[in-house]
């Protein structure tokens, strides 16, 4: 971006040139000199700022979905938020995490390659403690996971990948699938040490326990869809979400929703002493006569009037009338 000088700055510059304080030839030489910027080949820049912004938006949604999921599973206060999204060599990521941690290695078709969801032991053991009936405290000493603990961990984090698929829907339909769980970072080599990765760091709080969840996505995995992570593609995908197909899908899901349908024969009020004195063969008078239609409710709303009967030796109700909206039912 070119800097625009104010009028005062222009006047000061002209005055300096006139008085000889500044040399015009020196200014020209400085302008023609090549500007050198240091570049670390071990930290290759593969993701643009645009890509980082898109990854941040996607995983902010992921954090919200995870918060809902873990809150429901653990039945306690859970708060997850994106702290930062950065790019760094894979080797640097491995050296930055604890020697004993929870590493969920997974794939997400149609993306090619493996990714890692690293969960700090404080967070993972707090979840485990909560699932096993505790209050969700992190242990003072981290031990090797037992077979039962490993199974519980795999189950809860496998389902957490559904939240990742939901967050990526605006860009690509992916199907994350857990491949393996490791506890030692040295046994996990998903890419070469110098490969650039996108590291999404999520700050996690479970009750009084805090820790980090890190999502490691190698550049080679995202390379085929890098164009979809641009701001232009992002906004196009957001517009697509409101297409008629989405409306039809929503309409279909609503039509498949289940509601209770109740046919009411009538109602009656009796005292507690009368209720306690009921015996086989007693008759309870209802507030409706035999010739009055039955009230058929869908949910808690009166929708139909019908008459009782049988069909193929089963009790049935025939709908005789559709109740218009706003019509109230009165007891007779």
From TrEMBL:
InterPro entries noted in UniProt: CheC-like_sf, Flag_FliM, FliN-like_C, SpoA-like_sf
Single GO BP term: positive chemotaxis
Entry keyword Cell membrane: yes
NCBIfam families the record matches: fliM_switch
Membrane topology, from the record: Peripheral membrane protein
Family classification: Belongs to the FliM family.
GO cellular component: bacterial-type flagellum basal body; plasma membrane
Record's keyword annotation contains Membrane: yes
CDD domains per record: FliM (cd17908)
Entry protein name: Flagellar motor switch protein FliM
Pfam families on file: FliM, FliMN_C
Location relative to the cell: Bacterial flagellum basal body; Cell membrane
Domain Flagellar motor switch protein FliN-like C-terminal, residue spans: 253-323
Keyword entries, A-Z: Bacterial flagellum, Cell membrane, Cell projection, Chemotaxis, Cilium, Flagellar rotation, Flagellum, Membrane
GO molecular function: cytoskeletal motor activity
């Amino acid at each position: 971006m070119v800097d625009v000088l104010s009028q005062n700055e222009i006047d000061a510059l002209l005055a300096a040139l006139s008085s000889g304080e500044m040399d015009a030839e020196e200014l020209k030489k400085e302008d023609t000199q090549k500007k050198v910027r240091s570049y670390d080949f071990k930290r290759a820049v593969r993701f643009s700022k645009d890509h980082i912004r898109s990854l941040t938006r996607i995983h902010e949604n992921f954090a919200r979905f995870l918060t809902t999921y873990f809150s429901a599973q653990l039945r306690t206060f859970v708060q997850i938020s994106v702290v930062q999204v950065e790019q760094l060599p894979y080797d640097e990521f491995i050296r930055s995490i604890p020697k004993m941690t929870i590493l969920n290695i997974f794939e997400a078709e149609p993306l090619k390659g493996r990714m890692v969801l690293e969960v700090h032991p404080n967070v993972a053991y707090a979840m485990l403690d909560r699932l096993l009936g505790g209050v969700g405290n992190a242990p003072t000493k981290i031990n090797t996971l037992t077979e039962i603990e490993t199974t519980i961990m795999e189950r809860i984090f496998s389902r957490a990948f559904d939240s990742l698929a939901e967050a990526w829907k605006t860009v690509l339909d992916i199907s994350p699938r857990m491949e393996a769980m490791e506890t030692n970072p040295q046994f996990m080599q998903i890419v070469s040490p110098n490969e650039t990765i996108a590291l999404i760091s999520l700050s996690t709080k479970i009750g009084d326990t805090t820790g980090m969840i890190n999502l490691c996505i190698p550049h080679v995995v995202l390379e085929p869809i890098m164009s979809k992570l641009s701001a232009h593609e992002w906004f196009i995908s957001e517009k697509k979400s409101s297409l008629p197909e989405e409306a039809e899908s929503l309409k279909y899901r609503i039509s498949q929703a289940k509601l209770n349908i109740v046919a009411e024969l009538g109602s009656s009020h009796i005292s507690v002493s009368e209720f306690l004195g009921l015996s086989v063969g007693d008759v309870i008078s209802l507030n409706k006569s035999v010739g009055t239609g039955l009230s058929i409710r869908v949910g808690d709303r009166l929708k139909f009037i019908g008459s009782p009967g049988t069909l193929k030796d089963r009790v049935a109700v025939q709908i005789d009338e559709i109740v218009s909206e706003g019509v109230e039912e009165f007891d007779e």
